[in-house]
Amino acid sequence: MPDAPSFHRWRPHPWHGLSPGPEPPRVVHAYIEITPFDLVKYEVDKETGYLRVDRPQRTSAQPPALYGFIPQTYCGDGVGQLSPNAHGGDGDPLDICVISERPVGKSEVILNARVVGGLRMIDAGEADDKIVAVLHNDDVWGGVRDIENLPPVLVERLRHYFSTYKLILGAPCTATVEAAYGLDHALRVVEAALSDYRQLFSLP
After folding, report:
1. How far is the C-alpha of 198 from the C-alpha of 194, rounded, in Å?
2. How far apart are CA 82 and CA 179, in angstroms?
3. Each residue of 162-180: pLDDT tens digit?
4. Which residues make beta-bridge pairs with 119?
5. 3 state SS for 120-145
6. What is residue 23's predicted lDDT score, i.e. its pLDDT?
7. pTM of the full structure
8. What is the pLDDT of residue 164?
9. Secondary structure of the chain: what % helix, strand, coil (to 5)?
10. Please, is 108 exposed, middle or buried when counting C-beta atoms within 10 Å of its C-beta (0-12, 13-18, 19+)?
11. Is the peptide bond before 172 cis (omega within 30 degrees of 0)?
């Protein structure tokens, strides 16, 4: 008789109960909160693990890629130290944008993502980095290894979205995207976020 496959008897919390991925920091799990088709911003509720409506998108901008976070990461002092103009991390899981050739229209899905770079973003003085990744084994983008190998227009769309998605006409914008960075720095950010998580929750 074959061995029964392992499984979670109860649904795990997506931030704490899922692993960071099969080969972190290069290949990570991404828990998707928002798709490019969403006009409402959803965020995982940190207490329950369910998706919560954060706010309707105020402008006409839509996310140009799948958007979520890497489980068991935290943007604390370690992440903040990698962003010279920040005074710390934003206290959230590390955000990740995943580029896929085929449209993925469902949120609350888990996927394997290959890290290729990131965007250094500062929001209200805090580091709010956006890791950029491609869907692992994607037929078009799966071979990309560094953000410089992506079409510049894709990176431009990501930068524009995060530069404007909190913008309110007539009010100062608190969020700025300082620069895009490549694979080497992105791996350091992911490692720092994994370390910040272990320190926060006193894990070995």
Report:
1. 6
2. 13
3. 988 877 777 777 788 999 9
4. 130, 180
5. EEEECCEECCEEEEEECCCCCCCCCC
6. 97
7. 0.95
8. 85
9. 20, 30, 50
10. middle
11. no
CB count, 10 Å around CB of 105?
A: 11
Q: What is the CATH number that goes with domain 27-200? A: 3.90.80.10
The CB density around residue 178, as the number of other CB atoms within 10 Å, is 14
Total number of residues shown for the chain:
204
CA distance 161 to 166: 9
CA–CA gap between residue 31 and residue 69 (Å, rounded): 6
pLDDT of residue 24: 98
**Lowest-pLDDT range of 20-24, 54-58, 69-73, 185-189:** 54-58
Tokens of 203: 């894990």
- Asked if residue 121 lies in contact with residue 175, where contact means CB atoms within 8 angstroms, the answer is yes
Could you please report the per-residue DSSP string of the chain? -PPPPP--SSPPPTTTTS-S-SBTTTEEEEEEEE-TT-SEEEEE-TTT-SEEEEEE-SSS---SSEEEE-TT---SHHHHHTSTT-SSB-SSPPEEEEE-SS----SS-EEEEEEEEEEEEEETTEE--EEEEEETT-TTTTT--SGGGS-HHHHHHHHHHHHHTT--TTS---EEEEEEE-HHHHHHHHHHHHHHHHHHTT--
Instruction: Report the SS3 class of residue 39.
Output: coil
- The arithmetic mean of pLDDT across residues 170-192, rounded, is 91
pLDDT digits (tens, 9 = 90+) for 141-151: 999 999 999 99
